[in-house]
Amino acid sequence: MGSIRKLKKRILKEELSYRRRKTSRRLLLAGLALVLLLGAGAGWYAVNQERFAERRFARAQALLVEKDYAAAARQFHQLARLYPHASRADEALFHLGELQHLYLGDDQRALLAFLQLEKSYPESPLSLAAQRQAADLYMDRLQDYGRAVVAYQKLLDQGVADGDQVQYRIGEAYFRLNNFEQARIEWDQLLAMFPASSLGAEAGYRSAVSLTLQGDFEQARTRFEKVFTTWPGHLYALEARFGLAAVFEEQGQLIDALDMLEKLRGVYPKPEVLEQRIAQVRERMEKKRKAI
């Protein structure tokens, strides 16, 4: 009896061992099949991702034609999110930023789209354009002048074609921060780096204005004079003469101020402002005469 029990136990043990080996083989085969299936699915997805992205891009363009800008923006957003490796993912982000900014009035989302393009696709032909859009949004819509300076400086460091305009914007950002000294430095830098720039007269004028606001009237006077002698036919030559008259007035040279203002009659583009300033100078002169 004892030997029979031992035999039964051995047979049962062997049976259990066989079943475990059989189950393991089944699990291994099932795992291999699953891996092959997932691999095939991933390969199919990779092959067809570009086609799916193109379909979504075409759908977005059709919605643009229909002027359904919100729906088009959703399509571009989904394309960039679902198919980040598609050849048009960067273009989708750029269009998304433009739609949010120009048509949907959401500058924060526009900014995020442009910044994502810059970060995710630095080699894209649209990267610089996206950076410029982001800088302009900081400057003109979000009034975040500190970040605007950083963004414009980054563009300048990359050697953009319109470096004089970017340099001018840096000066403007500092001016809006009431940092007149740094604004003047940036505009002087424009004049030094881009002597043939069409913005030269304006940069020179704004530099003189900054000096005026700082109370440095002698330097401001020199700068105003340089503007209308260097660019005599420019609109800012007239503004420089008007600014110089203000400097004369600040320094108490009322006769010189009045003479400069009266010479601007018939040529200054804001005649009402000119006549008002002439009247103010004459009033000051009359009060001074009576005081004597």
Helix and strand string, N-terminal first?
HHHHHHHHHHHHH
Point out poorly predicted stretches.
Answer: 35-42
The major β-sheet equals: none
CATH topology assignment of the domain at 50-131: Serine Threonine Protein Phosphatase 5, Tetratricopeptide repeat
Please tally the helical runs, counting DSSP H or I stretches of 4 or more residues: 13
Q: CATH superfamily assignment of the domain at 50-131?
A: Tetratricopeptide repeat domain
**Percentage of residues in strands:** under 5%
Supply the CATH architecture of the domain at 50-131: Alpha Horseshoe
Tell me the span between the first and last alpha carbons: 144 Å
Helix share, percent: over 70%
Tell me the Rg in angstroms.
36 Å
> What is the CATH class name of the domain at 50-131?
Mainly Alpha
State the shape: elongated
Query: What number is the mean pLDDT?
Result: 90
Structure characterization notes:
Helix content is 81%, strand content 0%. The chain has 292 residues and is mostly helical. Helix 1 runs antiparallel to helix 2 and helix 7 runs antiparallel to helix 8. The termini are far apart. About 3% of the residues have low confidence.
Task: Please specify the SSE layout and strand pairing.
Blueprint: H1 2-65, H2 69-82, H3 89-102, H4 107-120, H5 127-141, H6 145-157, H7 163-176, H8 180-193, H9 200-213, H10 217-230, H11 235-250, H12 254-262, H13 271-291
Helix pairs in contact: 1-2, 2-3, 3-4, 4-5, 5-6, 6-7, 7-8, 8-9, 9-10, 9-11, 10-11, 11-12, 12-13
In short:
The protein has 292 residues and is mainly α. It has helices spanning 2-65, 69-82, 89-102, 107-120, 127-141, 145-157, 163-176, 180-193, 200-213, 217-230, 235-250, 254-262, 271-291.
